[in-house]
Amino acid sequence: MTARLRRTALALLFFGLFGVLEATTISCRNEEGKAVDWFIFYKLPKRQDKESRQTGLESLYLDSTTRSWRRSKQLMNTTKSVLGRTLRQLYEADASKNNNTAYLLYNDGVPTSVNYSRKYGHTKVPGEGYDYPPTGRRHGQTGICITFKFNQYEAIDSQLLVYNPNIYSCSIPAVFHQELVHMPQLCTGSSSSEIPGRHLTALQSAQGQKFLHFAKSDFFIDDIFAAWMAQRLKTHLLTETWQRKRQELPSNCSLPYHVYNVKAIKISGQSYFSSYQDHAKWCVSQKRTKNRWTCIGDLNRSPYQAFRSGGFICTQNQHIYHAFQGLVLYYEHCKETW
Fold first, then answer.
1. CA-based angle 23:24:28, to the nearest 5?
2. Where does the UniProt annotation place the signal sequence (predicted)?
3. What is this structure's pTM?
C-alpha cells in the first residue's frame, strides 16, 4: 500500500491549535474520545465576583453530531477535554517517531515567552504535553477543529504560507514533500515563496461539510471583516472580537455589506458577558440577511490588527449559525453621518 493511500484522513485545528496529517485514526475527538467530523468550543470568561464558582475553564461545546450548544462535562485544562483528547493523538504520534505523521506548532509568541509580535499569525499551542495556561482563564476564547482528508492539504499548505506562522516546533517527513510545498520550507524557516496579500480557498471536511477559508498576510493592511469577508460573503456581519478600550474599530456601514460590533454575549437565562471580557473572534450573519454564514478566526476588529496576518474559516452549516446567532445579546449600530 502506498503512503498516499495510507494517509486517508487527518485533523486540522485552525486558530489556536495544530495541524496534523496521518491515517484514519487521527481526527477531531469529543469528550468521550470518539471521532467527530468537527467540533467548536466556546471557553467562557471567568466571573470576577467573589460569589461565582466559575473557574474560567468552563465551556460550551458543539460538534457534527449535535444540533445546539451544550455545557462541556470537562474543564478545559484536563486531558479529558476535547482539546486534551484531540491533542493526545499528536503527542503519541510524535513520541512514536512515525514518519507518516506531520505537524506544525506555531504562535505569535513561543510558549513561556512574554514577547509577542503583530507580524505573525495569532495562534497558540502548549509546548510539551497538554495544558491550558492560567492566562487563558480570564477571558472568553473560541476554537474549531475540523477533520480533513489528505486531498485537502495542498490547499491548506498554501493558506499557511499566507499566514506567515511563527513555527517553534515541527516535523514534515519527506513522504509529504511532493504534495506539500510550503510546509517543509516554513518548518525550516527557509521559505523563499512570495507571500500574497490574501487568499481565499474552499475546503471540505472528511464527511463533506463545506468551508471557506480567508487568509490574509501582513501585506493586506485593512479590516478583514469590512474590507473583504462581508463583501465576499454578501452578508451583513455581526462580529464578536475583543473590544479593548481605545483599540476597537466602530461598526462600519460605508460599504454595501455592513459590519456591526457585538457588545454583549448571552449564555442562558440572565447570564451574559461583555465583549471586553471576551478574546473570542467570530462573526455571524445578521438575521435579516439571506446568506447565513458563521466564521471563526484569530483577528480582532482593531486598527492594529489590520497589520497582522491571520484569517477565518466560514461555513453555512445551519446548526452552527443558529448556535452563534443565539449568543448575540445586542450589537452596536453605525453612527449616522450628515
1. 105
2. 1-23
3. 0.88
